[in-house]
Design brief:
It contains four helices and no strands. The protein folds into two domains: 65 residues; 74 residues, no CATH class. Helix 1 packs antiparallel against helix 2 and helix 3 packs antiparallel against helix 4. The longest helix has 28 residues.
Length: 158
């Protein structure tokens, strides 16, 4: 196993690079899985599978190290990194729901009545209140993300 000393943030960047490389190798494997009769392989699928296997092993080892580090890392606010990551994901989800709710509830020009006999479509929520909630959630998410990013650059990978 190749062990390199690095910060958690560097490991996250490395993880993304490995995943990108794996996707590229996968694309090449699929592209070389068939050839026209009489043609030569441009690349060997077997060789590419070995290359992919090596990258998968590297990713597996790196992700284990990242997860171990996240389990013991505590942010300046006392929150465990795993808790912080989960909290940030949930804030992002709530923000997504709020912004989509407001978008769905906001009347569009095609919903306006052209005469008094047509049914009027009205929002069933307080749009201003939900927008304010959405803004608060987005702010909280950004602040937490800044704490996470700071810890990522200050924490040595285990």
């Amino acid at each position: 196993m190749y062990v390199k000393n690095m910060k958690l943030a560097e490991a996250l960047i490395e993880r993304k690079a490995i995943k990108t490389k794996m996707e590229e190798i996968k694309r090449r494997i699929y592209a070389t899985s068939k050839i026209q009769e009489g043609d030569e392989f441009t690349e060997s699928p077997a060789t590419l599978l070995q290359e992919l296997d090596a990258e998968v092993t590297k990713l597996e080892q790196l992700v284990i190290r990242i997860n171990k580090t996240n389990n013991v890392t505590v942010l300046e606010n006392g929150m465990n990194m795993m808790e912080a990551l989960t909290k940030r994901d949930m804030l992002r989800y709530k923000h997504y729901i709020c912004t989509n709710l407001v978008d769905k509830a906001t009347p569009t020009p095609d919903q306006y009545r052209f005469s008094q006999r047509e049914i009027k479509i009205l929002p069933n929520i307080n749009i201003v209140e939900i927008r304010q909630l959405s803004d608060t959630i987005a702010r909280d998410s950004r602040l937490l993300d800044m704490k996470i990013q700071e810890a990522n650059w200050m924490t040595e990978l285990l």
